[in-house]
Design goal:
Elements lengths: L3 E4 L2 E3 L5 E7 L9 E6 L6 E6 L5 E3 L8 E6 L4 E6 L8 E7 L11 E5 L2
Parallel strand pairs: 2-10
Antiparallel strand pairs: 1-3, 3-8, 4-5, 4-9, 5-6, 7-8, 9-10
Length: about 120
């Protein structure tokens, strides 16, 4: 059963912006802290940002602070990540899941490539 569907990735030049979105299929979505993770080629998957059910946010990667903004809509069972001032090192596949520990099945993710 598909738990998440991520979308919104693409190719963007350095300094550009993208917004990635995730729609969950679970009815208990609003009960969980949700997060965005990313996995660059040859590297492990890391938690980038998380948001509680009440909207309290935490950014786990220092390099994204001030550039990325996580948000959620519990009624629509969605979680978004607005990414501004993108850098080549932000290139990765982006996934959503519960946080800080991923307990649901992973989706396919959405590829974000930052390159000129």
């Amino acid at each position: 059963q598909v738990q998440f569907v991520e979308s919104g990735g693409g190719l963007v030049e350095p300094g550009g912006s993208l917004k990635v979105s995730c729609v969950a299929s679970r009815s208990d979505f609003s009960s969980y802290t949700m997060g965005w993770y990313r996995q660059a080629p040859g590297k492990q998957r890391d938690l980038v940002a998380r948001i509680t059910s009440a909207g309290i946010t935490t950014y786990s990667v220092d390099s994204v602070k001030g550039r990325f903004t996580i948000s959620r809509d519990n009624a629509k069972k969605t979680v978004n990540l607005q990414m501004d001032s993108l850098k080549p090192e932000d290139t990765a596949v982006y996934y959503c899941n519960t946080a800080p520990h991923a307990v649901w099945d992973w989706g396919q993710g959405t590829q974000v490539t930052v390159s000129s």
